[in-house]
Amino acid sequence: MITKKNLLETIKKIKEAPMDYGDNPERIEKGIEDKLRDKETPFKDNPSFPEEQPDGLPSNWEELLASKRFKDVVEKVKRYTGFEGDVSTQGSLMSLQQTLMGTLRSVMSFEVENKEYLENLAVELVKKEMALPEDQLQFDAKIVPMGGIDPEGFQMQGEDPSEEEVEQQFGVDNESAEDDVEEFITAMEKFDAETAKRRFINALIQGASKKGHYMFELVANELTDRNPNIVNQYGVLMSVNDLMYWLLPDGVIEGQFGQGGFAGKEEVDTETDPPTVKARAVFFPALVHELIKGVMEILGTQGLPDDPRSAEMVMNKTDTIPSEIWDLRLGPIIWEKFYESYPNKLFDEDLRYIQNYLFSRFSALNTEEFFKVSREILRGSELGKDIVNKMVNQIIEDLKREDYEEDEYNREIGNDDDDGLSGLLGSLGITLGPEDDN
Question: b vs e for 116-139, b when ≥16 Cβ sit within 10 Å of the residue's Cβ?
Fold first, then answer.
């Protein structure tokens, strides 16, 4: 018979172990676990997450996503390294870090001899896997030495705009706001909604880009012809690196970034015709990651406010190194959920390019509808899949119209304005207000 004391002890253990580790012995760093339990992450109270508690052991959605991602990371480490036992112990961590450094030296030696080949291979791989139309984007991809990533543009802390600028940029007249507290609150709520939306889109972008870390497997034959060990070495390098995001305290990881420990960087130049994705990375898998991230950034520009200064304020608030660390942790599973909502036809060879249009149109939803759709996608609900399917069908119909494809692609990357989104959402029973019509 279970006594009251045993019951209370069981409840205490459950509360202290919110992560679902299954039967695996590995555990994440205690500080990270605490932040997940207490929802002290950049996703705290983000309206994109369902309000209800998920089924199972995790008490919130961040824990649920983290549980799945951590298991995936541990599995990859054991697959590529052949390591047996608990990879999260202090002894294992030290051993894996030594393996990582040795592997890195071998990888960099190979890449010095094959630099130009790998740079071209990365571009062609991304263009093929993302089904990108020819001549719609330019790519400037380079593998650089360790420490060769320009740290400019990275920020450790978000920038909070002044109340006056929020009032001005988010639709509230200064004089009116002084006399009407409700108008001021509305402006702040709109700004907060835009920043929450940007946070979720960033996670999706990092999640989609993270798959680039392992896309070397798609060109394994080509790489093996040049070095029979390089494919497994890339696997060791990327899987152990992923594991460190879960085993090292946030302060340690942030400190490494603060000392210039960047593996890659991407920039987008929209002034060129067509736009240019510029990527720099210290090894091939990271270069693929940065190229994908740059393309996704272009496709996701519809998710920012139209006004340039308003968009800048949102990015200055959200795009930080600590937030990116969490995007790298949870983003892959968030993206996986998004990917699972796709109808089967989107995986047909002749329709894969529609995936790019879908992400852009999803990003362009106004904040209220964006949050509603996101919640359904994370839940894995039939409603979420139905909405995505309708969006896909509408995109396909649009592209069938004469001369539509070129105009639509230009619009999706921010070079054109029209009411196509309103028409699409109308077909889904979603009505945009006047302030969202642009």
Answer: eebbebbbebbbeebebeeeebeb
Question: Which position has the token pair 């899987």?
Answer: 239
Q: Which of 280, 304, 332 is where one domain is finished? A: 332
210: pLDDT confidence band, cut at 50, 70 and 90?
confident
Identify the band that residue 259 occupies on the pLDDT scale cut at 50, 70 and 90.
low
Structure tokens at 91: 């002894």
The residues, ordered by sequence, that sit 6+ positions from 183 with a Cβ below 8 Å of its Cβ are 172, 173, 176, 177
Whole-number Å distance between alpha carbons of 106 and 235: 13
Residue 333: other Cβ atoms inside 10 A: 21
State whether 412 and 326 are in the same domain: no
Is residue 138 in a domain?
Answer: yes
User: Could you tell me if 437 and 374 are in contact, meaning their C-beta atoms sit under 8 angstroms apart?
Assistant: no
Structural domain contains residue 110 = yes
Q: Taking the mean position of all CA atoms in its chain, how far away is CA 286?
A: 14
Q: What pLDDT is recorded for position 407?
A: 58
Identify the pLDDT of residue 433.
Answer: 39
Asked whether residue 23 is domain-assigned, the answer is: no
Q: Are residues 230 and 174 located together in one domain of the fold?
A: yes
In Å, what is the CA distance from 67 to each residue of 64, 173, 187, 207? 5, 46, 36, 15
pLDDT at residue 425 is higher than 50: no
Q: Mean of the per-residue pLDDT values for the chain?
A: 85
Q: Which domain holds residue 86?
A: 33-332
Residue 19 inside a domain? The answer is no
Which of 1-10, 28-37, 104-113, 385-394 bottoms out in mean pLDDT, i.e. has the lowest?
A: 1-10
pTM of the model: 0.85
